[in-house]
Amino acid sequence: SDSPVTLKILQNWVPRVSHYFDKEHYTYVGHQIVIQESIEHFGAVVWPGALALSQYLESNQEQFNLKDKKVLEIGAGTGLVSIVACILGAYVTATDLPEVLENLSYNISRNTQNMNMHKPEVRKLVWGEGLNEDFPVSTYHYDFILATDVVYHHAALDPLLATMAYFCKPGTVLLWANKFRFSTDYEFLEKLCNVFNTTILAEFPESNVKLLKATVREN
């Protein structure tokens, strides 16, 4: 119903303290966040969708209040969005592929260890695999599912959609921010709209990022 807001991704990088190419400094919710990147994996680089969603969560805390909410990030990558969700008071579970977890755990622990917040959890999650075993429905219910730049030129789009559908229960809000590059991105968006009630919350035209909210269709 409401048209999406048009935003810029703010250049809120802090002047670099370190001279290493692999550390980026950001400021969200009044906290300096230092992210170690790795060029060895797609998942270990901060993509524009993560900046867009971090900025949106910081600016829209009344609309999306994460305090004491259970939040699952899928494809957490460097952990920036999970760290921001932690600072906003959420119980966060950050997930990704096994090869990304070491860097993810490092970033999350170093940026949250001395703060008065719920201790975040880092777990392996391969889209579409072992969901019932690792995250049984009877035990795990999330208020928010966060995903950024999880859709790019790869073959795991059907398992990704199945994973989103698995975790999105009545009452769960999925927030997905993605840079739209390829026709496959729009095809995934179309599939998402067929499964969920979907709204575009914001668009960042300079970086081709769209931020969407999706909720399960209740019959």
Automatic annotation (TrEMBL):
Q: What keywords would UniProt list here?
A: Methyltransferase, S-adenosyl-L-methionine, Transferase
Is Nucleus one of the keywords UniProt gives this record? no
Sample GO molecular function, one term: methyltransferase activity
GO BP annotations of the record are: methylation
* UniProt-listed CDD domains: AdoMet_MTases
Keyword Cytoplasm carried by entry? no
Query: Which Pfam family name is an example for this entry?
Result: Methyltransf_16
Q: Which InterPro entries match?
A: Methyltransf_16 (IPR019410), SAM-dependent_MTases_sf (IPR029063)
Q: What is this protein called?
A: MT21C methyltransferase
Taxonomy, top ranks, is: Eukaryota, Metazoa, Chordata, Craniata, Vertebrata
Query: Which gene specifies this protein's sequence?
Result: Mettl21c
